[in-house]
Design brief:
The complex is a heterodimer.
Chain A: E1 9-15, E2 18-24, H1 29-50, H2 58-62, E3 70-72, H3 75-90, E4 110-113, E5 118-121, H4 134-148, E6 154-158, E7 162-166, E8 175-179, E9 190-194, E10 197-203, E11 223-230, H5 233-243, H6 248-257, E12 262-267, E13 276-278, E14 285-287
Antiparallel strand pairs in A: 1-2, 2-6, 3-5, 4-5, 6-7, 7-10, 8-9, 9-14, 10-11, 11-12, 12-13
Chain B: H1 3-6, H2 15-28, H3 37-40, E1 50-55, H4 59-68, E2 74-80, H5 84-96, E3 102-104, H6 107-113, E4 119-122, H7 129-138, E5 142-145, H8 153-166, E6 170-172, H9 180-190, E7 198-206, H10 223-228, H11 234-238, H12 249-266, E8 272-278, E9 290-299, E10 302-311, E11 319-325, E12 328-332, E13 339-343, E14 358-361, E15 364-368, H13 383-391, H14 396-410, H15 418-437, E16 441-442
Parallel strand pairs in B: 1-2, 1-4, 2-3, 4-5, 5-6, 7-10
Antiparallel strand pairs in B: 7-11, 8-9, 8-16, 9-10, 11-12, 12-13, 13-15, 14-15
Helix pairs in contact in B: 4-14, 7-8, 8-15, 12-15
The chains are: A alpha+beta, B alpha/beta.
Chain lengths: 305, 450
């Protein structure tokens, strides 16, 4: 039997304008390499379908349709767009993959035909951008692939914006993920313990103020950074962006209604001590410096759907 | 205008509600019923449904399958793969498009049982292409077969012959032949003579080191099945491209696409090839992992020399084809980010160059290779150019399959019939011979004919 290396094997791959990384502990080296290759091939395939920068991607082609036209898309595209609509509704428009084209909050630019895997547009040249959930979706698909490959422990991330921890690390317990506040490059703000869950971060300074409120067109200035945790990496990715635009009370309400969703908010201009922890994750965040404890009793993780 | 839809959230619509909504909308909003309006633009004809068998939905096969599902009027009746893992993957995709198919492991059983098929798409390992293609055509099916035609010239010849004998259509998967961007480049070179006289060609496909393909634990084929279908081990089945029994190696896997473009644009197969290559950077494989080949062509009585490389240890420069002439050079790639024309300083300027969009790339000013820019005499954009521009947004393999289906339905010409693909197969498989023999291979014109 080939030996299993003591430290996790690390694999890296550039795609979707970031570097994906896989850490696979407890796997025979050759099996790990092949699983990683399968994962990276899947990410490349998804990029060809979902990136608006690839002219023949589903997203680019949907964005070129005239009003009333339909396009058959890959099942993955339909899945992402339908999830995006769900997040749009849950965040009252704070997250919107069609924000450039949405005339008002109640308009719905897309129509889905679930039977034939087709998407229609109500207006010409609907501008779609899956940038705020595509990488999370790729992480989610990689995790599904690793499950199929019976890899029981793994850490997967997309350019450190969305991370998923599968199973337990080699020493047992939970994977420990560091949170870095945008203004502090060196010292972590705190740590989150993750097991079979995703964590995604969005920051104003980190990425140079790229988040714009789709409802007002103004840059997000409510929080310096936000993190969302969820059982799904896609949901975590989308929500971390939306949380940048939502008041703490709105985020809290969402966490109560969406099973397994948690949030960490670093309000603008506040110190790490004043970061807010909302939702069931509260009990599983370890802070490197004292911060205000969760405002509500943490829900049991079993409550997560 | 949105009143019809305001009542319920879009994502919450079920099938019946969706149809109601769509029907209601079609009155006020011209919301077309799901008939894939984009593809049908300009044509109200109802397309006849073609019934297709898909043989070999592996990694390239999945790509073909998903692109094919975007074409109107295609109904998959059966899929076939020796590996249950691939069968399940493909059947699951098809289910999402409401297509329930029969599943086979053995293509002969498929042909014995499925009597109502129009065509087969074949994306199996190269070494079984000839056997399967010939059998499908003899069973009365038109065939779209992935390149390389076969990993032996004997196999390729059988395919050409079977197409002639049966009168069935055979399209080989050199999909650049159906790509409007390539047609446009060819028009610029041939009709507009934007490069003057083409003297040299250059191409490459460099890609990073990859790990071998594997399989999820517990999903391997049993030994009896592997043996039945000609594979010693699961490893060899998954990584068939690296073994001489199953594949023509990287020259056939990758080089074939680009040597095909050389032959196509120069309107002639090569006259000679010499090549250096080897298995220098990988263990446990057979095929050369790198090949550097020098081709010679004769065009209009003058020599055209070409250089081609395929490397599997670096992605430097990616993949592209370059045509160099005494008045300019043109770089094109299936990757749409790469399409440029560089003009020599001495070249006579064309009127349209003043209005062409320029970019700086590779340290020089270049004209962007854009389609859809052609103007009519009145200054408006030529509608045919606009149509091609729209076409060019489709995935490349979809265009090539559409060309195949159009040939079946309307008798339009195939863009890569077997005689054309045979010339390409000779051009690349003989380069492997040149590597092995360590000498220059001269082609006789009759070598390219069947």
């Amino acid at each position: 039997m080939p030996e299993i290396p003591p430290a996790p094997q690390r694999f890296a791959h550039d795609a979707m304008a970031c570097t994906f990384e896989l850490y696979l502990p407890g796997v025979e080296p050759r099996y790990g390499q092949r699983a990683a290759q399968a994962a990276f091939d899947e990410i490349d395939r998804l990029e060809q379908i979902l990136s608006r920068f690839v002219p023949h991607s589903d997203i680019a082609r949907l964005s070129a349709l005239e009003a009333g036209q339909f396009l058959r898309v890959s099942p993955e595209t339909a899945e992402c767009l339908q999830l995006a609509e769900r997040v749009y509704a849950a965040t009252r428009g704070a997250f919107d993959v069609a924000f450039r084209s949405r005339r008002d909050l109640r308009s719905a630019p897309l129509v889905f035909d679930p039977v034939a895997c087709a998407v229609g547009v109500r207006e010409a040249r609907v501008s779609l951008d899956l940038g705020a959930l595509g990488k999370g979706y790729a992480v989610e698909r990689v995790v599904a692939l690793l499950r199929e490959w019976q890899v029981s422990s793994a850490l997967v991330h997309s350019g450190q914006s969305t991370v998923y921890a599968r199973g337990q690390p080699p020493n047992g317990g939970t994977w420990r993920v560091a949170l870095r506040a945008p203004e502090q490059s060196a010292a972590p703000l705190g740590f989150v313990e993750l097991r079979d869950a995703a964590l995604s971060g969005s920051g104003q300074l980190l990425h140079g103020g790229h988040i714009v409120d789709p409802r007002t067109g103004r840059p997000a200035d409510r929080h310096d950074a936000t993190w969302a945790s969820a059982p799904s990496a896609t949901v975590a990715d989308a929500l971390s962006t939306a949380f940048m635009l939502m008041a703490a009370d709105e985020v809290r309400a969402l966490c109560e209604h969406w099973p397994g969703v948690s949030a960490i908010l670093l309000p603008a201009g506040r110190t790490a001590h004043e970061a807010l922890c909302l939702g069931p994750l509260g009990g599983r965040v370890q802070w490197s410096r004292p911060v205000r404890p969760p405002e509500r009793p943490a829900q049991r993780p079993e409550d997560s759907g | 205008m949105n009143d019809v839809f305001r009542a319920s959230s879009v994502s919450g619509l079920n099938r019946r509600e969706f149809l109601t909504a769509a029907a209601a909308a079609s009155a006020g909003l011209m919301m077309t019923r799901p008939g894939w309006a984009q593809e049908q633009a300009g044509s109200a004809d109802k397309v006849d449904e073609l019934r297709i068998a898909f043989i070999g939905p592996g990694s390239q096969g999945r790509n073909l399958l998903t692109q094919c599902l975007k074409i109107p009027g295609i109904r998959f009746a059966a899929i076939c793969d020796i590996w249950p893992y691939h069968q399940e993957y493909a059947a699951n995709i098809l289910k999402k498009y409401d297509q329930i198919v029969k599943v086979y492991a053995d293509y002969q059983e498929l042909l014995a049982h499925e009597k109502d098929l129009d065509a087969a798409i074949i994306a199996t390992p190269d070494w079984v292409h000839a056997e399967q293609t010939v059998a499908c055509m003899k069973a009365g099916l038109h065939v779209y077969c992935e390149k390389e035609m076969a990993n032996t010239l004997e196999g390729c010849r059988q395919m050409v012959q079977a197409a002639r004998d049966t009168g069935k259509l055979l399209q080989i998967g050199h999909q650049r032949r159906s790509n409007p961007r390539y047609w446009h480049a060819l028009k610029m070179i041939k009709n507009d003579r934007i490069l003057g006289r083409v003297t040299h060609v250059n191409g490459q496909w460099n890609r990073s080191r990859r790990f071998d393909l594997g399989w999820p634990e517990g999903r391997e084929l049993d030994d009896a099945s592997l043996k039945k279908y000609g594979y010693d081990t699961m490893d060899r089945f998954r990584n068939w491209r690296w073994y001489k029994q199953y594949s023509g190696g990287p020259m056939a896997d990758l080089g074939s696409h680009q040597i095909d473009v050389f032959n196509w644009f120069l309107e002639a197969p090569p006259t000679a090839v010499q090549a250096s290559g080897g298995l220098d950077n990988y263990d446990d494989r057979e095929w050369y992992d790198n090949v550097l080949a020098l081709y010679e062509y004769k065009v209009g009585g003058k020599k055209v020399r070409g250089f081609y490389q395929v490397l599997n240890t670096t992605s430097h420069g990616g993949f592209f084809e370059t045509f160099m002439g005494d008045e300019g050079s043109l770089v094109i790639s299936e990757d749409t980010r790469r399409g440029f024309i560089f003009r020599e300083q001495e070249a006579k300027r064309r009127e349209w160059e003043d209005e062409a969009s320029m970019v700086e790339t590779m340290g020089r000013d270049a004209i962007e290779l854009k389609i859809g820019e052609t103007l009519r005499p009145d200054g408006t954009k030529d509608p045919e150019g606009q149509r091609l521009l729209e076409e060019s947004q489709k995935p490349p393999h979809q265009l090539h399959m559409e060309n195949f289906f159009n040939a079946i339905r309307h008798g339009t010409p195939l863009s890569c019939p077997p005689e054309v693909a045979y010339e390409t197969a000779v051009s690349v498989l003989r380069a492997n011979d040149a590597v092995e023999a360590g000498c220059r291979v001269e082609f006789k014109p009759e070598e390219f004919k069947v």
